[in-house]
User: Which sequence fits this backbone?
């Protein structure tokens, strides 16, 4: 991975901060990234911009994300700079899903002069609005972006199903799909339906909207090994759990996490235990614990290139739990996408220019690539918009 | 997936900063000064495309004039880790003579009719000055700048002396140049190395020339290698005085421009030490009508124009100024003689909440002020008002913004 997927001109905006032209700097950032303020707050800089910062070769990388965030916040405080009016192309494009990918696409399409109708079952913002914990992203930090974008296009509240999809597709010159990954993957083990067992997206959403209604008890176990599981663990801690244990079936090296988040979870007192596989969830009406087995890393590698964990016979043991959160990944939550060609994992398959197997329909974001990042999703949207523009220009 | 970088679509409207100066319409106040950056057609082209409003092509001379360069020619004055705080050069005028520059002017004017294409010239004899002017005006130059202040080398009988250091030579030569023009304005590029800059400006004004370019590099000895005793830039163990440019000379230039503007009614092209949009605001506030930049471009490239334009436009908006032109001379009424300054009792005030007890103000006052800052055992400084005279030294050594302020006594 290299630099910024939305290609923010980093030297340019930093040179502007240097001369105290903070508004100019914010404008540079916002020109390239539709969710500028949000990315300024929670983009994993260690895998993007700062990983390629030349200064890192001399001493340590420039704190690019912090500078970026400083600029967008200052601009928001002053009031957004006036933007220009884009000459209308006379064509309509529909965007389904107002998460990072959808918003990124709608913004770029607006710049290209298209009338854009954005449809989302909820308020715009996608995962950052619904699931990313408050302590990492405050609502106003995301709203700074959605408010700015609302000047370019409107988001209509609409839960799209096969019927509405057909209508939307028919009524627009092109359609961009960006519904993300709304459905939790489950373990498929006994006891998963017990009260007190929560799939991670549900858990995070509830913790965000109604934290006072949540009673996680004293002991929380999180099953998973990605960033989302770390968010769940840190959230459980904040909800008052005395002990939070995260169990992962492989080792620390195999975790798919950003180093900063892992350190932060540990600082919060989350206990992370490796080489453990859940076997069944125990309890009568309500969860009481989780039965696990120890694993070792086998010689064989899976399709992600990581060693496959092998259960060690006779190693089973139980961890007590009042709440268990299953955070082992997400899939697409849309049966109405039945007609689309898929990839392994169920993600929608697109060609290089974001075209799906359906004529005039494009797709981007997590639904085509699996769990990614905000900035990558915005970038998908942006590039897809250019592809849609090319498609409509020759049509 | 990795994607090719896209050309971004601008989302902000173009902010008009155009105005007229010396009858020339300029997109913005930022002009490239006569230097290596303007001595190549492709470079100037690229700069124009990026948004520079104009360029003074590097100083040229008549065919056959020998320009005998010595290399390396660049050196630097670094300050506490910052490179090129000041930059030194022992460059001379362009090695490219009038035939080539005349061609450059023609091509640039044709390709960029809306840009200010100016040419800089230097000569010795009257007929040479005049033929340079005539040819360049015919080629389409918008302005002629005369280098009366090249600090290295010279053309004339008095080695080591610049034209602009002689009042009579300045007036006479400026008159020759002006006589030779039909319509276009002439600016004389002067040096601050004179006893009285106002007298030089008056001589130019008397000659009938239209403007002054103030000023140029400052003569300097860039440093000595303390082991080999060879000065910088090291040209085979020897060196000569350099012309110093860049941030280090800004305060000198500000004073030069201000002093001319306060005393002589003549348009000024400001040059010498401006690097940012706010430097440009300062140059204009003391009387410059446009700002010529050189070192910042040699250091960071033509792309600095992005921030110059953006920063200036946001500043104008914030200040509710309709055009850069309104900045010209805005600070001049506030520059007065020492006698005319107010004589109020002021005292230093340290904000204890902001103070980080670093010691700097205490030491500075103890050994360079009036021993008026006491340091209690806690290291938190305390101003003894009886001893404090209000000199302000403590305020300037303090590393914390607005921690120390000067208060007027009742
Ligand atoms: C807990 C968590 C933490 C994360 N933390 C970070 C982080 O710190 N930094 C980072 O860069 N990335 C983070 N990510 C990843 C990032 O949030 C995703 O990569 C990104 O949101 C994907 O964007 P998207 O637009 O593809 O999908 P989504 O954000 O999922 O948006 C999809 C949108 O489509 C709407 N939708 C779905 N179905 C329908 C339908 N049928 N009709 C109408 N609307 C529909 C949804 O309501 C939603 O608004 C995190 C993800 C999670 C889950
Ligand atoms: C390498 C170099 C060459 C220069 N050559 C010329 C020249 O040929 N004619 C001239 O009038 N000024 C020349 N200058 C001076 C610049 O035009 C400018 O006035 C000076 O550098 C101060 O501005 P700055 O601080 O922005 O660099 C030269 C400066 C440098 C650094």
Assistant:
């Amino acid at each position: 991975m290299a630099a910024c997927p939305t290609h923010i001109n980093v030297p340019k905006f930093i040179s502007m901060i240097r001369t105290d032209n903070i508004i100019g700097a914010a404008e540079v950032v916002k020109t390239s990234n539709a969710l500028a303020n949000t990315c300024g707050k929670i983009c994993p800089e260690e895998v993007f911009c700062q990983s390629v910062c030349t200064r890192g070769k001399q001493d340590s990388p420039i704190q690019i994300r912090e500078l970026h965030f400083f600029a967008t916040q200052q601009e928001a405080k002053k009031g957004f700079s006036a933007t220009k009016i884009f000459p209308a192309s006379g064509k309509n494009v529909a965007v389904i899903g107002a998460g990072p990918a959808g918003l990124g696409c709608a913004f770029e399409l607006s710049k290209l002069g298209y009338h854009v109708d954005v449809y989302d079952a909820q308020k715009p913002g996608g995962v950052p609005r619904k699931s990313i914990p408050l302590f990492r992203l405050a609502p106003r930090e995301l709203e700074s972006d959605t408010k700015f974008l609302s000047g370019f296009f409107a988001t209509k509240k609409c839960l799209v199903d096969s019927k509405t999809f057909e209508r939307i597709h028919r009524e627009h010159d092109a359609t961009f799909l960006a519904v993300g990954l709304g459905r939790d993957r489950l373990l498929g083990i006994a006891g998963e339906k017990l009260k007190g067992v929560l799939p991670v997206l549900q858990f995070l959403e509830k913790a965000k909207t109604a934290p006072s209604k949540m009673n996680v008890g004293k002991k929380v176990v999180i099953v998973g090994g990605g960033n989302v599981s770390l968010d769940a663990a840190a959230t459980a801690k904040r909800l008052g759990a005395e002990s939070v244990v995260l169990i992962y079936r492989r080792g620390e090296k195999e975790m798919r996490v950003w180093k900063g988040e892992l350190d932060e979870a540990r600082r919060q007192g989350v206990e992370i235990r490796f080489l453990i596989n859940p076997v069944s969830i125990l309890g009568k009406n309500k969860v009481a614990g989780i039965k696990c087995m120890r694993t070792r890393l086998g010689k064989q590698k899976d399709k992600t290139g990581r060693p496959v964990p092998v259960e060690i016979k006779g190693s089973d043991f139980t961890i007590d739990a009042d709440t268990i959160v299953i955070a082992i990944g997400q899939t697409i939550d849309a049966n109405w996408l039945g007609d689309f060609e898929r990839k392994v994992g169920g993600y929608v398959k697109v060609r290089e220019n974001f075209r799906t197997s359906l004529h005039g329909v494009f797709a981007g974001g997590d639904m085509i690539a699996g769990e990614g990042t905000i900035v990558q999703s915005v970038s998908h949207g942006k590039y897809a918009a250019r592809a849609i523009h090319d498609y409509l220009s020759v049509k | 997936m990795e994607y090719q970088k896209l050309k971004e679509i601008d989302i902000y409207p173009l902010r008009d900063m155009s105005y007229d100066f010396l009858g020339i319409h300029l997109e913005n106040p930022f002009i490239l000064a006569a230097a290596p950056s303007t001595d190549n057609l492709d470079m100037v082209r690229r700069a124009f495309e990026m948004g520079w409003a104009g360029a003074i092509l590097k100083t040229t001379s008549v065919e056959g004039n020998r320009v005998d360069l010595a290399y390396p020619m660049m050196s630097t004055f670094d300050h506490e880790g910052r490179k090129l705080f000041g930059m030194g050069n022992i460059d001379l005028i362009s090695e490219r003579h009038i035939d080539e520059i005349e061609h450059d002017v023609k091509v640039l004017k044709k390709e960029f009719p809306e840009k200010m294409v100016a040419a800089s010239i230097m000569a010795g004899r009257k007929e040479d000055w005049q033929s340079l002017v005539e040819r360049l005006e015919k080629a389409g130059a918008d302005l002629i700048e005369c280098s009366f202040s090249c600090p290295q080398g010279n053309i004339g009988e008095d080695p080591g002396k610049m034209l602009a250091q002689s009042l009579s030579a300045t007036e006479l030569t400026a008159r020759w140049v002006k006589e030779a023009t039909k319509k276009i304005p002439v600016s004389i590029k002067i040096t601050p190395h004179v006893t009285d800059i106002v007298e030089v400006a008056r001589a130019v004004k008397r000659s009938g020339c239209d403007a002054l370019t103030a000023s140029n590099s400052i003569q300097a000895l860039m440093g000595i290698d303390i082991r080999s005793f060879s000065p910088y830039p090291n040209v085979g163990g020897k060196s000569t005085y350099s012309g110093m440019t860049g941030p280090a000379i800004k305060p000198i230039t500000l004073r030069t421009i201000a002093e001319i503007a306060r005393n002589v009614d003549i348009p000024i092209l400001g040059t010498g030490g401006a690097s940012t949009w706010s430097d440009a605001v300062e140059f204009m506030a003391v009387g410059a009508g446009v700002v010529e930049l050189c070192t910042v471009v040699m250091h960071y490239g033509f792309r600095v124009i992005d921030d110059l334009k953006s920063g200036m436009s946001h500043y104008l908006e914030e200040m509710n100024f309709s055009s850069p032109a309104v900045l010209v001379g805005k600070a001049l009424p506030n520059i007065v003689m020492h006698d005319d300054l107010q004589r109020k009792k002021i005292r230093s005030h340290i904000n204890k909440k902001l103070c980080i007890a670093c010691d700097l103000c205490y030491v500075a006052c103890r050994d360079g002020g009036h021993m008026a800052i006491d340091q209690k055992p806690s290291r938190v400084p305390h101003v003894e008002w009886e001893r404090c005279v209000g000199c302000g030294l403590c305020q300037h050594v303090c590393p914390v913004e607005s921690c120390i302020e000067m208060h007027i006594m009742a």
Remarks:
- DSSP finds eleven helices and 18 strands in chain B.
